[in-house]
């Protein structure tokens, strides 16, 4: 396999949980050498966020949770106690050789260890140093800890997620995955690459300040703009769309399906197939703007029509007419889907504990520098000795460090 696009890039990853590790896994997938720094004895918190647990080669559970596996492949695990002077010296030496440092400690939390941006930039002026926090490096909330669920609420996402007021089960809902963390990791990856491009032109690194709250607000997208333009706060609409109708789930004879009709031509074709061509000519429904205005009248009509066929029947008919539709899959359905299988979105990597570690593949497809899967998520401290030897530590040095609990 050809070298990844980021082959030769060195990343010192001091982050844990999800947002930071998601960013460093992305860089690792693209070819970077990522050293994941973990606390001796326990490691990243998510190692213990189970069940379920990864099984070893004999089928017995390991101590690594599935959660940890989702975001830590293509990394080398180094255990270091950064509260010890000897540990700090190791990390400063690694930072002096690194291109990127990634961390998600509380604001100012690494300064006491000499691992903050100012300290490390003095050793390595070209260093790109990315800090991820809940609320940023400044402002009235800067000292607060930030968690995805909290930020989904504070950042407005939960105000537009959930069943509409008046419906059974109405109320704010969080998204089913830690989406703010994931989005922050993706923003971090983009920001790091931009800063590296700048360094390539100027030789100078820089500090990147990323906040979960900032990311969540930025990703409200059309909902935020609807508010800023109209002055009206969007409301929860269940699976409905504030700007497009019909664009939601509908019942079928054997379950549910999604209709994602994005223009008037698609709507007219749907009406024809549903046996109600007159709807497309009705002034209340002829244009998307009219359908949005008359949503309460149209949706019940559609629901009475969609229950007349099964999901599979609707999909077959509508796909042939280029009307966007689809099933609502559970995870078993997702990974059995022929397109998902064809695209290879599941990968299995040999794990150091024996057996295989299932992975969800990176969705990026390069023509010249394909994504690589070099290593399964490591066991705790798997690469400690190898990394220390790269720094010139002898076997005796490593023995002393282990005996002292530094690594």
Question: Can you offer a commentary on this structure?
Answer:
By secondary structure, this protein is of the alpha/beta class. It folds into 2 domains: 10-218 and 341-403, Crotonobetainyl-coa:carnitine coa-transferase, domain 1 (Rossmann fold, 3-Layer(aba) Sandwich); 247-328, 2-Layer Sandwich (formyl-coa transferase, domain 3). The protein has helices at 19-29, 66-69, 85-97, 117-123, 148-154, 179-202, 212-218, 221-230, 264-274, 278-281, 288-293, 295-306, 311-320, 331-336, 338-342, 384-390, 395-403, and strands spanning 10-13, 33-38, 53-55, 61-65, 75-79, 100-103, 128-133, 206-211, 247-252, 255-260, 325-327, 346-350, 356-360. The chain is elongated, with a radius of gyration of 25 Å. The chain starts with 9 loop residues before the first strand and ends with a helix.
Helix content: 25-40%
| End-to-end gap | 33 Å
Strand element count: 13
Estimate what percentage of residues fall within beta strands: 15-25%
Key words describing this protein structure:
407 residues; alpha/beta; Rossmann fold; formyl-coa transferase, domain 3; 2 domains; six-stranded parallel β-sheet; three-stranded antiparallel β-sheet; 17 helices; 16% strand
Lay out the secondary structure:
Elements: E1 10-13, H1 19-29, E2 33-38, E3 53-55, E4 61-65, H2 66-69, E5 75-79, H3 85-97, E6 100-103, H4 117-123, E7 128-133, H5 148-154, H6 179-202, E8 206-211, H7 212-218, H8 221-230, E9 247-252, E10 255-260, H9 264-274, H10 278-281, H11 288-293, H12 295-306, H13 311-320, E11 325-327, H14 331-336, H15 338-342, E12 346-350, E13 356-360, H16 384-390, H17 395-403
Parallel strand pairs: 1-2, 1-6, 2-5, 6-7, 7-8
Antiparallel strand pairs: 3-4, 9-10, 10-11, 12-13
Helix pairs in contact: 1-6, 6-7
């Amino acid at each position: 396999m050809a070298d990844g696009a980021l082959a030769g890039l060195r990343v010192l990853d001091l982050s844990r949980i999800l947002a930071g590790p998601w960013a460093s896994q992305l860089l690792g997938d693209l070819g970077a050498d990522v050293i994941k720094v973990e606390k001796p004895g326990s490691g990243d918190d998510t190692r213990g966020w189970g069940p379920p647990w990864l099984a070893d080669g004999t089928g017995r559970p390991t101590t690594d949770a599935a959660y940890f596996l989702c975001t830590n492949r293509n990394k080398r695990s180094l255990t270091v106690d950064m509260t010890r002077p000897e540990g700090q010296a190791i990390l400063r030496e690694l930072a002096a050789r690194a291109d990127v440092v990634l961390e998600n400690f509380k604001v100012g939390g690494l300064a006491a260890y000499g691992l903050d941006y100012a300290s490390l930039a003095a050793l390595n002026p070209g260093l790109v140093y990315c800090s991820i926090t809940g609320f940023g490096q400044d402002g009235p909330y800067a000292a607060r800890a930030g968690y995805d669920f909290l930020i989904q609420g504070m950042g407005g996402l939960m105000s537009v997620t959930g069943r509409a007021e008046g419906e059974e089960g109405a109320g704010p809902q969080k998204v089913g995955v830690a989406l703010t963390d994931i989005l922050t990791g993706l923003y971090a990856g983009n920001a790091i690459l931009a800063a590296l491009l700048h360094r390539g032109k100027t030789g100078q690194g820089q500090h990147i300040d990323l906040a979960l709250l900032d990311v969540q607000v930025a990703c409200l997208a059309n909902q935020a703009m609807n508010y800023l333009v109209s002055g009206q706060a969007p409301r929860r609409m269940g699976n409905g769309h504030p700007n497009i109708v019909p664009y939601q789930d509908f019942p079928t004879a054997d379950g549910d399906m999604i209709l994602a009709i994005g223009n008037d031509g698609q709507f007219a074709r749907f009406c024809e197939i549903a046996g109600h061509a007159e709807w497309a000519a009705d002034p209340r429904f002829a244009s998307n703007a009219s359908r949005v205005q008359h949503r309460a009248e149209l949706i019940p009509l559609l629901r009475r029509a969609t229950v007349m066929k099964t999901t599979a029947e609707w999909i077959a008919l509508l796909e042939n007419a280029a009307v966007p539709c689809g099933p609502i899959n559970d995870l078993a359905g997702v990974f059995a889907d022929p397109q998902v299988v064809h695209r290879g979105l599941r990968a299995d990597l040999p794990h150091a504990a024996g057996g295989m570690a299932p992975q969800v593949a990176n969705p990026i497809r390069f023509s010249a520098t394909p994504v690589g899967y070099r290593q399964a998520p490591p066991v705790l401290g798997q690469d400690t000795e190898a990394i220390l030897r790269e720094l010139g530590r002898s076997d005796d040095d490593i023995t002393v460090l282990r005996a002292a609990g530094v690594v």
